[in-house]
Specification:
The chain is mainly alpha-helical. The protein has helices at residues 3-7, 9-24, 34-53, 56-72, 81-85, 87-97, 103-116, 119-132, 136-140, 149-165, 170-180, 186-198, 208-220, 229-238, 241-250, 252-267, 291-302, 306-322, 327-336; strands spanning 269-273, 276-279. InterPro entries: FANCF (IPR035428), FANCF_C_sf (IPR038505).
């Protein structure tokens, strides 16, 4: 250990004692003031710097001194350097795991953390938290405060579900997905399932969770009953078009099922004047999806890829040959404008 490190060893040991006291006695968190939270995270930053500044040989020596110091003071719970390398993450985790903590205190803790560390580190921290913590709902309330919060939500939930799936708890994942598709929830939750399917980088051994989501969605897309109305409204009118385009490009089965619904909806429309179509309310279960909606959806998909573009026009041509309706000609014409 260097002379400088030796001269500061007492201060360093005291700092580690203070940090461990914060971690092991979390009662202060519920009533923490702004300055107390700032001081705690600044201490965390100091701890991280101490660990990073030691060379490998010095770190081993310091760990030995630290353990001896704790034993001398009757502290028998030991921590390795990996724990202290991410000291601020451990503090943030403490805030999230504290029951009945006020949203204001959580918000302050997050803002202090983000003032000290980059967004990427925060994303990694929250992903780990949502994987190992039961505080999924608490974290979901706060991801909206960060850049690209929806992406963070998709990645975090994928990690959590992947953990369950690969620990023989796939039924929990399946039931959660099905629950999100219930008529009274689907308008606010479908974007999450679509978002997870749109992720390109899958940090799991295999895309099992994505495949499960896709299978359940494809089954849902076969439903043409009134019970599926909220699902189709959410998919056609509320899901971000870029997400929908991404999904259709990545999953051919999804594109086929989606186009089948488009053709089904178009076949239930009547022409009331030149270029004007209206849905027949006597036979359609979802009159809210009109001609302009179909046109917008198909037009956005045309920007995807040549493969998707070809699939769309082929499907419209098939529909034209199978019926006498002029709607397919109008759609092709309007899409080409």
């Amino acid at each position: 250990m260097t002379e400088n490190a030796q001269s500061n060893i007492t201060q360093i040991l005291n700092s580690f004692d203070k940090f461990i006291s914060l971690i092991e006695n979390p009662y202060w968190v519920k009533k923490a003031k702004v300055e107390e939270i700032k001081t705690a995270f600044k201490l965390g930053v100091f701890i991280e710097k101490v660990i990073s500044n030691f060379a490998t040989s010095e770190l081993d020596q310091f760990n030995s001194i630290l353990r001896k110091h704790w034993k001398t003071n009757s502290h028998f719970k030991m921590y390795d350097e990996e724990f202290f390398e991410l000291a601020c993450d451990k503090l943030l985790e403490l805030f999230f795991k504290t029951e009945n903590i006020s949203e204001n205190i959580l918000d302050i803790a997050i803002r202090v953390y983000t003032s000290l560390h980059k967004q990427e580190r925060l994303k990694n921290c929250l992903s780990k938290l949502i994987l190992y913590s039961s505080s999924v709902e608490a974290m979901a309330d706060f991801v909206k405060t960060f850049n690209d919060p929806k992406h963070l939500e998709y990645v975090s939930l994928l990690h959590y579900w992947s953990h369950l799936y690969h620990t023989k708890k796939s039924d929990i994942v399946k039931n959660s997905i099905i629950d999100m598709l219930k008529s009274y929830k689907v308008s606010s939750s479908l974007h999450v399932l679509i978002g997870i399917l749109s992720l390109d980088e899958i940090e799991e051994p295999d895309p099992s969770v994505q495949q499960l989501i896709l299978r359940i969605l494809l089954d849902k897309m076969l439903d043409r009953s009134l019970l599926s109305k909220e699902f189709w409204l959410a998919l056609c009118k509320h899901i971000d078009k870029s997400l929908l385009t991404n999904i259709c490009a990545k999953h051919e089965d999804f594109l086929t099922s989606f186009l089948n619904f488009i053709i089904y909806s178009g076949s239930l429309m009547n022409k009331i004047s030149v270029g004007v179509w209206t849905t027949d309310s006597k036979i359609s279960f979802c009159t809210e999806i009109g001609y302009s909606d179909i046109l917008q959806l198909l037009s956005s998909l045309l920007k995807c890829s040549e493969k998707v573009k070809t699939a769309i026009f082929d499907r419209l041509c098939d529909a034209k040959s199978e019926s006498n309706s002029e709607i397919w000609d109008d759609l092709i014409k309007d899409m080409s404008c």
